[in-house]
Amino acid sequence: TLKVDLAKPGIPVSPTLYGLMTEEINYSYDGGLYAELVRNRAFKDDGKTPVHWSVVQDAGGGAAIALDERYPVPATALTTSLRLDAAHAAPGHRVGVANDGYWGIRVKPGTRYRASFYAKTDGAGSVPLTVSIEGVDGKTVYAQAVGGRISGEWKRYEVTLATAGNVKPTADARLVIATESPGTVWLNQVSLFPPTYKDRPNGNRIDLMQKLVDMKPRFLRFPGGNYVEGGSVETRFKWKETLGPVEQRPGHPGTWGYRSSDGMGLLEFLLWCEDMKAEPVLAVFAGYALNGENVPAGPGLQPFVQEALEEIEYVTGDVNTKWGAQRARDGHPAPFKLRYVEIGNEDGFDKQKNYDGRYTQFHDAIKAKYPQLKLISTVNGKDWLGQQQKVTSRAPDLIDEHYYYNPMQMMNDAARYDSYERKGPKIFIGEWAAQEGDPTTNLHSALADAAFMTGMERNADVVEMSCYAPLLVNVNPGGVQWRFNMIGYDAQASYGSPSYHVQKVFSNYLGDVSLPVSAQKVGTQTWQEAAPKETPQLLPPAREVPTMFFSATRSAQRGEIYLKVVNAIGTAQAVKVELAGAGKVAPDGKAIVVSSAKKEDTNTIAEPAKVVPVTSKVSGLGKEFSYRFAPYSVTVLVLSTR
Ligand code: AHR
């Protein structure tokens, strides 16, 4: 029996309970959400060779490409160009360069692409260039345009390429820039964009944006994660170097083994929020980098505090402020709404253990100028990192906790917040996921995620915000740095994991008040935790973990109750539901169910909809009713009180 008590007032649910977390990992932006199709467009990825670029020549030989630092494009960050020696080009014998994209280039029928590039010759004459999207074997040309006659001075060229309506979709394609006239050509910032979400220049991939918008996320935590910290202080996320025209952005080494173009810069993050109607949760660099470099509190830290204050001004300042004016020049005069700022990321890993002082310096400076902002500490003393750091000098508004567990461990932890300290700061579960399924998580993980989320909803007085991580993964083997992710894609297509669908359903049926709900006779499943690596002979005692998890919320505005139930086992469970103290409960409602025959079932590029929500009408509802929860299922019962 599940008993929901409507006679009690319940506890308000934070409207920001469900959001998104993002950073450059798994080719999330370059090769992912950021719609640029050309890889290594500014030739800095490797520094020695023009990776992802190759020579194209119809016949003969002699053509060559090489990186060249002798001719930077004036007044830009484009310091390394690609030299094409095309002395043997001749009518009928084209010579050029090809880019293989991020594991291919997406070709769709009836689609307009914007190509652009900087180019110059050695001044010995003008060289006409053509731009084409063609098959990797060079035989099929999907779209072509005249790129312009290139002269001895650097100049930017832009062309539109359009595919025919009957083109067969493929990712087996490349971008080619070529000539049939002899000469030497230098190229820089070679770019190709398909249509983007809301048609934004320098914008985002449409299918991925739509998936994110459908989740109705209330916030976006960015730019990390590790990515905000940087591999070193020098390579932290330097937001000022991510502003303005992309040719002004030098890019930087990311923290997950590849270079970032910084096409996804600070303003793009904010526009991304705007497009999702989500608010930014801005993480600022706090003096600690992943290589252990540490800038302790004091005068040495002050430039970084100042950097954070200026970043906040860029986001929120009006056009009369220095950085608000810069934002206006960048194309967005209206300030963005900002309520949350996070100081660093996972500072519990900091061996110097001096976060308290660093946090305090940021806290005091930010609160002095922006008292309305809620500040988030990244350590808690308890501690989810096995560290014992705690902020004691100041009272953070929230604490960011991270949980990456296997599904059974996550289910075992679903009651974590039932007995949590109520007097301390609110909790922001800024990264978490049940981890089974590779490179995107499976139904077992989704069941555990949902179990954990019922715990968040029941404890909405403590948990103010949460966001799953990582969000995005390019599923090509070279694209995966983290094995358990929410949304997968390749150059051509994308899909949501079962975890994605569960997140989406929970977020779409959030409610505004969490109702007391209790249960009788919940069964258990046995979980044998693995032995610690150091003592493999010492198995911890087996644990009994519930087979069913639940929460209930109410939306006053919609006049609805959302009863969320997770059946974590492979047999159906019949449950009697009592809505104590309810007024009217309509006999008809609906059920949204995410389930599948096996808990290992999952979605993939080839089978994107194996585990998806199914909505059906339910009759026979009322103040008391019985419902059979399907095996391995997450169910949201929507009950109308009108
Ligand atoms: O989500 C992947 C990584 O996990 C994040 O970058 C980091 O904060 C955490 O350790």
UniProtKB/TrEMBL annotation:
InterPro entries associated with the record: Alpha-L-AF_C, ASD1_cat, CenC_carb-bd, Galactose-bd-like_sf, GH, Glyco_hydro_b, Glycosyl_Hydrolase_51
A Pfam family hit: CBM_4_9
Catalytic reaction annotation: Hydrolysis of terminal non-reducing alpha-L-arabinofuranoside residues in alpha-L-arabinosides
Any one GO molecular function term: alpha-L-arabinofuranosidase activity
Superkingdom classification of source: Bacteria
Ranges where the Alpha-L-arabinofuranosidase C-terminal domain occurs: 430-633
Family label: Belongs to the glycosyl hydrolase 51 family.
Name this polypeptide is given: non-reducing end alpha-L-arabinofuranosidase
Native organism: Duganella vulcania
